[in-house]
Structures
1.
Amino acid sequence: MPGGYRRKKYHVGDTHLKKGWRTKRRTKDLDQIDEDLKEGHVEKLLEQPVDFDKPGLAQFYCVHCAKHFIDNTAFKDHVRSKPHKRRLHALKTDPYTIEESERAAGMGSYSQPGKRKMETLEPEAVKKGESLADVKKRAKIDAVFKDDTAATEEKENESKDEDGDVNM
């Protein structure tokens, strides 16, 4: 009668790869995301200029998870996912501060961290319901418009003297 099931050890020598696997999937920490959620900085992240090197041309960015998505449906699926909801729940508590660490060490009285309301922030492309094709069209139109305005400004500058007088 044969013996029981024996586990095969295919990955026994992969311990040197563990660090690579950990760092490959590393995302921003909660305190870094809390800095991103401050007034003034979050607007820049939600209204990023078109960048052809990033997924979705940098128009579908989740601020809470610090991830770019390829299109509107991928972003909406992510918002309904469990990892996004976990991240929102973790961001509800105030970030750890130096004062809190001093109180925990015995220098002061301990008080529980405060709770705050956290809702998903949607980028402008998601609010408008744009697809990736719409974003590409908009990027082309913006590029053409910028070229036209730069050309007209250059012509205006050429037609003026050093004093600012218009040459005829």
Note: The first helix runs from residue 18 to 24.
2.
Amino acid sequence: MDRYYLESLRNLAILEMIFRNKQKIKKQPWDKECKVFIGGLKYNVCRTDVVDIFSQYGHVVNCWVARKPGGFGFVEMKSRKEAKWAVRKLHGSFVYGFKVKVEMSQDKPVE
């Protein structure tokens, strides 16, 4: 058999295994008590940048940064105390030249 064909089969098997494992993993809901909003980010700030910034104030459990439109994101800290500390220290600070708004996340009001 052709080497290219065998390599393609191997890659296909790996992708199938990854797909099966992803289906088994259930997303954990975010702890609303430890969820922090960050707004005013520069459009090209990525998830790892935000994690690095928030890691100075405690353990980051989860992080999501918007892409289209960008400029905001959410971070889940390990404890409410760490989340509040990050809010106090980061609100109004400059991240890559942009002044950011950092506050405890609020649930969307149900209309």
Note: The first strand starts at residue 35 and ends at 39.
